[in-house]
Amino acid sequence: MTNILEQKVLILDFGSQTTQLIARRVREAKVYCEIYPYNISLEKVKARDPKGIILSGGPASVYDKGAPAVSPELFELGVPILGICYGMQLTTYLLNGTVEHSRHREYGPARLSIDDPGDMFHGLSPDPVTYQVWMSHGDRIEALPKDFIGIAHSESCPVAAMRHRTLPFFGVQFHPEVIHTEIGKGVIANFLFRICGCMPTWDMHSFVESATNDMRAKVGSGRIICALSGGVDSTVTALLVNRAAGHQLTSVFVNNGLLRKNEAETVLAFLKQFDLKVHYVDAGNRFLSKLAGVEDPEKKRKIIGEEFIRIFEEEARRIGDVNFLAQGTLYPDVIESVSFKGPSATIKSHHNVGGLPDVMQLELIEPLRELFKDEVRKVALELGMPEDLVFRHPFPGPGLAIRILGEVTAERLEVLRDADAIVLEIMKSSSWYRKVWQAFAVLLPVRTVGVMGDERTYDNVVAIRVVDSLDAMTADWTRLPTDLLAKISNRIINEVRGVNRVCYDISSKPPATIEWE
Q: At 464, phi and psi to the nearest 5?
């Protein structure tokens, strides 16, 4: 994209659980940023032409065998660099300083004393004398690299922040991206604006204008079909493309038979209020036949992704002379499909990214590819979408197929649909729906013994998943009131035939993912 993406900051990920929080803080400061694995090539870094580079934290020690590292040539590019925690230790190590295991490890809150109030700490109030920051490290800097000076310390860490005397290289041992660091936003803002010279141009109004202009230039007079599910991501994509190309767009709503209860009817009724040309395809039997006997979650995703594309290609031939396929890929989809360790350690493929076939006849348009979910919702409001749709819970592209562990059948889909509908109904009626990121039911591939009406039963188990999150990159399980959980459980067991046990998932992400598959 042009204009608002011309200035950017790169974040190189060394496996920190808070790398995505760094990106959030940078974007909250209205500066565009991108996350890449630490082993991105220097050529690619140069090609991205960043205004600054941030090296994330990570679980390794710089002296570990195979510890993740960047080329020392990164420091010869003339680009400002900020190392955070492991990123600071790696900077020290690569520039011939000394890192050693600390006798007093720091995990959690610590008091930071600032020794040099300029640069990274510019404009921060001198009172109090110390600030609370969040530490998470077992190593510390023992000898600074040549021409570096310490600019802050803590009780157990003599060099808690450092800078080069003349070059724009900085390091902080604490984590400015977490909310527990009270000066975190100020430190990041100083790096972005004072050190890198960025301008706060990243906002959703500018994004809409830029995305519209870029798509208009890309598609020219070409014709486009849009993969429309009725969720906020695909609807925003359709509206943006429609804004750019108008009559050249046909939105295709595919009912893959893996949707929630009454989903197809609800979506079609809702879309009528928009000036969109929508074609409905009922392909439920087609998807189910392809999924017959398949239990592996990655195979499910690949099958569903490929079948979607084949249907869109068929629709393109039916429409005639279609050149582009638009879909609602988000930035978390991109990040999770290529982990910091590279493709071999990919967490899971997303149907919008890793689930696409190798050979496609249509060129992809993904206007939301750079956005987090909350940013997409801001775009939706910018486009005038109603709040009921804007704040609808995320629903995976593969649908209920990845909420049914094991084989997907029509019977198992019916059980899950009924259970999931009860979860959503109770969440909405209790006012909890808008308080959480996502709530849904999962059908497990096990049966348990129960008693109903004085008779023995041997039926299915349903798990309930409710999480709090900002962007789906990290998530924590929601502490729902026990009476609400009891209500959900009782209604599912009493109303959904074939279920005699309900469990509540209390796993956070990481180590778990939000979806079960």
A: -105, 130
**422 and 498 co-located in one domain:** yes
Say if residue 510 is preceded by a cis peptide, omega within 30 of 0: yes
Residue 517 resides in a domain = no
**Residue at 225 is within a domain:** yes
Number of domains in the chain: 3
Average pLDDT, the chain: 88
Quick: pLDDT tens for 42-85. Answer: 999 999 999 999 999 998 888 888 899 999 999 999 999 999 99
**The predicted structure's pLDDT at residue 66:** 87
Q: Look up 177 and say whether it is catalytic.
A: yes
- CATH number of the CATH domain containing 139: 3.40.50.880
Q: For residue 262, give its domain range.
A: 204-390
Q: Kindly state whether residues 225 and 258 are assigned to the same domain.
A: yes
* pLDDT for the residue numbered 344: 31
503 is an active site residue: no
Q: 300 to each of 93, 222, 291, 293, 360, how far by Cα in Å? A: 44, 32, 7, 10, 19
| Residue after which a domain boundary falls, among 144, 166, 195 | 195
If asked whether residues 281 and 420 sit together in one domain, one would say no
Report helix, strand and coil shares of the chain as percent, to nearest 5.
Answer: 35, 25, 40
298: helix, coil or strand?
Answer: helix
Catalytic residue among 137, 175, 350, 351, which? 175
Q: Considering 33, 85, 157, 196, which one is annotated as catalytic? A: 85
* pLDDT-based confidence at residue 315 (cuts at 50, 70, 90): confident
196 in active site? no
